[in-house]
Amino acid sequence: MTDNDNKAVASGPLELHSAVFAAAADPIYVCTPDFIVAEANEPYAVVCGLTREETLGIRLPDLIGAATFSRRKPFLDSALAGHPATLQDWVNHSVLGRRFFDVRYQPVRDGSGAVVGVVAFGRDITDLQQAGDALRMHRSVVSQMSDRISIIGRDFRYRMTNESNALHHRTSTGCFVGRHLADVIGELRFHAEVKQRFERCFLGERIEYDKQERRPDGTMAIVSTRLEPFRNQQGDIDGAVVILRDVTETRRMENRLERLALEDELTGTANRRAFETWVAARLDALAGRRQDLALAAKQGFSIVFIDLDDFKIINDTVGHGAGDRFLCEIASRLRGLEDDRVHAARIGGDEFGLVIDGADRIAARSICDKVVRAFDGFHFTWEGMRFRAGASVGLASVDPDLAREAVPDVRHVLQWADHACMKAKAAGGRQVSEHRAFDRVAARRRDEIRHLAEIEQALAENALCLHRMIIRDVHTSAREMQEVLIRLRSPSGSLRGSSMLLATAERHGLMRRIDGWTVERVLTRLEEDPGELPVALNLSAESLGHPEFAHDLLDRLDGARHLACRLIVEVSETAVARLTERAWRTLAGLRQLGCRVALDEFGKGFSSFSLLRENTFDIIKIDRGLTADVATDPVKRAAISGIVGLAEALHLPTIAEYVADEASFTPLGALGVRLAQGDYIGKPEPWPDA
């Protein structure tokens, strides 16, 4: 082997060493025994804020500063003595600022084994250090919290617990690790109360509840318990975090404040807020939204309003002090009626109320009669003056049938009892008046059932028919279009108008059949008579949003576009709020085929201005509430003028509906209305051959 070959072999490891040294991402430098930098890579030069070439040949005290060097020197000396050393310290990085590094000092030896320098390998572990600090801080906080905190695995064994929980059980935190929850709280309670809650938490649910628990000193406590899913690094639920907090005093204070909030300050009885809460709870029970009330409350209840007769005489004669004393006496007598089913409250100045659980109206009426007799026989004496008490009593009963049919809320039920009370007072007082809401609801229900049967029969026997109403130009009286109206021929032969028909049909899901029947008749008529005026017909939100109805209608008109341009689909302003996204797509599809879409009853609620700006409609029909009395009502004229101005800005024609007489018709032209319909223009008439 030649000398050149020996040099090549020797240079190979040196070149490899240099390549690895240069490629390292972590900072590395080599220094001599007198602490002069003999070699450094680019990452180390960046830490110092220099180029690699600038770092070479500089003494470490000059490069990193005397104070920093004094901290590093013991570790450098150890490495120079042949013993590797490791240091963790903060370093001022020229680019990243203050960073935490792990530095290993390794001896560099020559071929004979003598130490000829030190190589220092640095690694930035700032993130790891911060995570460790956060973990130590977290552990410190958890250990010092008064809340009792534990982590329990899916095997129901403790992974950790804090000092508070360990002290509660008079043991150490280490003794908890690995213990089964059932061993701590008992097998019976674990299976009866706790296991199912933990299993729900393991599925991802957050569980919160209060429980009674005995303290180490033997006293009872209310403990708020919260279970939170505990997730591992992969995000999988690996257990539950359990947080226990003694809330005994908090709950006592809450209960006291709640009691004060629900108690009348003068009489000590429940107040109006409590009364309304009772009523709301019972309505929820009847609707199936609550299960925590007694069975009697779920079967029905009665509301009683009691208005004291001639109370003002006591106040005016002997003063408010006497009046307050009188009210306390009355409250005391009402409390004497209370039991599990009867609850009394003061609901106003001289008004009291009862909530009576149970569906027995006769029993409730008997209690009301008892109140009247008790008050009538009570005499109040103050400073030698004697006053006779008395009360007007209103009774309203609610049972499951009434709750289902009338769907009352608290306000309605209280109004029923209040109206009955006012009726008793108007009749002379000292008596009971009963509100018969159910009788009226039942009558409406019977009418509804009869109407529904007639509609079903008419659809089955083809007893529906169409009338039309002509729509004319306000200025020329030219016939511009016609609106078709549905009529139902009753078994007696009389015709029923569309208002009853449509209201009942909408409530019972029959509008799609009625709309389908109407569309078919209209399109057939337009096909048979090319000279027929354009036809406006009303379609329900239910039909427009139904996929099958929409598909059939669009498909039919797509094959007969000459009919589509003669069709105006009306949508009432009240129906707009019920239009689904599919219904809007149906309307857009109809317009693309050439149909026009009219916004009917506009002005009834002024809720569709934004939709007009979106170019959704082609015609605006002004509601009857504005056209009626327009001749004498300046506010209505101003409203119509505003609607016309809006329509003109959008280039839309307007139609005034229900123009009943000449007085209503005359102002329309001056207001800018283009078209009109109503009895004055032309009364509804049978549509020939329809």
UniProtKB/TrEMBL annotation:
<dbReference type="InterPro" id="IPR000160">
    <property type="entry name" value="GGDEF_dom"/>
</dbReference>
<dbReference type="InterPro" id="IPR000014">
    <property type="entry name" value="PAS"/>
</dbReference>
<dbReference type="InterPro" id="IPR035919">
    <property type="entry name" value="EAL_sf"/>
</dbReference>
<dbReference type="Pfam" id="PF00563">
    <property type="entry name" value="EAL"/>
</dbReference>
<protein>
    <submittedName>
        <fullName>EAL domain-containing protein</fullName>
    </submittedName>
</protein>
<dbReference type="InterPro" id="IPR035965">
    <property type="entry name" value="PAS-like_dom_sf"/>
</dbReference>
<dbReference type="Pfam" id="PF00990">
    <property type="entry name" value="GGDEF"/>
</dbReference>
<dbReference type="Pfam" id="PF08448">
    <property type="entry name" value="PAS_4"/>
</dbReference>
<dbReference type="InterPro" id="IPR029787">
    <property type="entry name" value="Nucleotide_cyclase"/>
</dbReference>
<dbReference type="InterPro" id="IPR000700">
    <property type="entry name" value="PAS-assoc_C"/>
</dbReference>
<feature type="domain" description="GGDEF">
    <location>
        <begin position="299"/>
        <end position="437"/>
    </location>
</feature>
<feature type="domain" description="EAL">
    <location>
        <begin position="448"/>
        <end position="690"/>
    </location>
</feature>
<dbReference type="InterPro" id="IPR013656">
    <property type="entry name" value="PAS_4"/>
</dbReference>
<dbReference type="InterPro" id="IPR001633">
    <property type="entry name" value="EAL_dom"/>
</dbReference>
<dbReference type="InterPro" id="IPR001610">
    <property type="entry name" value="PAC"/>
</dbReference>
<dbReference type="InterPro" id="IPR052155">
    <property type="entry name" value="Biofilm_reg_signaling"/>
</dbReference>
<feature type="domain" description="PAC">
    <location>
        <begin position="85"/>
        <end position="137"/>
    </location>
</feature>
<feature type="domain" description="PAC">
    <location>
        <begin position="207"/>
        <end position="259"/>
    </location>
</feature>
<dbReference type="InterPro" id="IPR043128">
    <property type="entry name" value="Rev_trsase/Diguanyl_cyclase"/>
</dbReference>
